[in-house]
């Protein structure tokens, strides 16, 4: 019965999301002619839970004049429920399907800073989408710091475990190579404060030179710039 009610909520909020989403699209189209600074195209943040994708993404977007979008937030808006409820009803597989659907749409937007979910890079289709539609930045932080930042959070279902450090270590070992392969730029987000980090990231983005042979207008090169 509880599941049925939640599923009805999911359906009823789809219409609500479509409205929000079309509003967001029109906001994007109204800002796209403004001077958005010299960082071209979309900036896409990837990395582990707690790496700072949402936190850094918001500040970065405001500093370089782009629209901030967060896939986790969009999924919650569409369904009308929090991520743990989606995991509870549909499992991780259901959540991943929703994540891909949302990503396919969001990457079509222009001039955005996109904070992805920590597991968004797990599907090859998603990795290709991200690389084709923006400069992909891996925010890299050590497990001890990720643990410190996420230990009180109840909204990350994969971290609701008796041994948080072991769980994060397991995910890190599995994902770190994938984040590195997917990224155009890698930056340490573990040891520096948010403002300093955003300034350094802007410098890296400004220095980044996409290859001309890649997808126009700003398809980035496979060369990584690591700190
Ligand atoms: N550079 C930083 N220095 C210190 N604290 C940070 C830094 N970046 C983020 N934090 C803190 O870490 C916590 C998690 O950050 P955030 O929610 O941005 O991570 P996330 O990468 O978006 O995680 P998720 O994948 O689960 O969405 C927040 O409390 C935030 O304030
Ligand atoms: O790392 C992950 O797999 C996840 C990270 C969060 O951003 C959410 O997307 C969800 O909790 C799964
Ligand atoms: Mg986030």
Automatic annotation (TrEMBL):
Q: Where is the protein found, in the record's own terms?
A: Cytoplasm
Region of interest (Disordered), residue spans: 208-227
Binding of ATP occurs at 50-55, 156, 192
Cofactor binding note from Swiss-Prot or TrEMBL: Binds 1 Mg(2+) ion per subunit.
Q: Which UniProt keywords apply?
A: Amino-acid biosynthesis, Aromatic amino acid biosynthesis, ATP-binding, Cytoplasm, Kinase, Magnesium, Metal-binding, Nucleotide-binding, Transferase
- Give the record's GO biological process terms: amino acid biosynthetic process; aromatic amino acid family biosynthetic process; chorismate biosynthetic process
Transmembrane stretches in the record are: none
Which pathway or pathways does this protein act in?
A: Metabolic intermediate biosynthesis; chorismate biosynthesis; chorismate from D-erythrose 4-phosphate and phosphoenolpyruvate: step 5/7
| Main location (coarse class) | cytoplasm
CDD domains in UniProt? SK (cd00464)
GO MF terms here are: ATP binding; magnesium ion binding; shikimate kinase activity
Subunit info here reads: Monomer.
Family listed:
Belongs to the shikimate kinase family.
Q: What is this protein called?
A: Shikimate kinase
Q: What is the lineage of its organism?
A: Bacteria, Pseudomonadati, Pseudomonadota, Betaproteobacteria, Nitrosomonadales
Gene name of the encoded protein: aroK
């Amino acid at each position: 019965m509880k599941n049925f009610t939640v599923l009805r909520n999911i359906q009823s909020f789809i219409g609500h999301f479509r409205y929000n989403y079309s509003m967001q699209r029109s906001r994007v189209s109204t800002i796209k002619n403004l001077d958005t600074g010299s960082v071209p195209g979309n900036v896409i943040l990837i990395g582990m839970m707690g790496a700072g994708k949402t936190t850094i993404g918001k500040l970065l977007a405001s500093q370089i004049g782009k629209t901030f979008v967060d896939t986790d937030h969009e999924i919650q808006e569409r369904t009308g429920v929090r991520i743990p409820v989606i995991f509870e009803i549909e499992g991780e597989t259901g959540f991943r399907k929703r994540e891909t659907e949302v990503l396919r749409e969001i990457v079509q937007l222009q001039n955005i800073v996109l904070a992805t979910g920590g597991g968004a890079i797990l599907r090859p289709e998603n990795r290709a989408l991200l690389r084709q539609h923006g400069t992909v930045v891996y925010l890299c932080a050590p497990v001890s710091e990720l643990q410190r930042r996420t230990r009180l959070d109840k909204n990350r279902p994969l971290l609701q475990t008796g041994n948080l450090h072991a769980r994060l270590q397991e995910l890190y070992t599995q994902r770190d190579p994938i984040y590195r392969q997917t990224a155009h730029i890698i930056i340490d987000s573990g040891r520096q404060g948010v403002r300093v980090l955003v300034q350094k990231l802007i410098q890296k983005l400004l220095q980044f030179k996409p290859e001309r042979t890649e997808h126009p207008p700003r398809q980035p090169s496979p060369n990584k710039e690591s700190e």
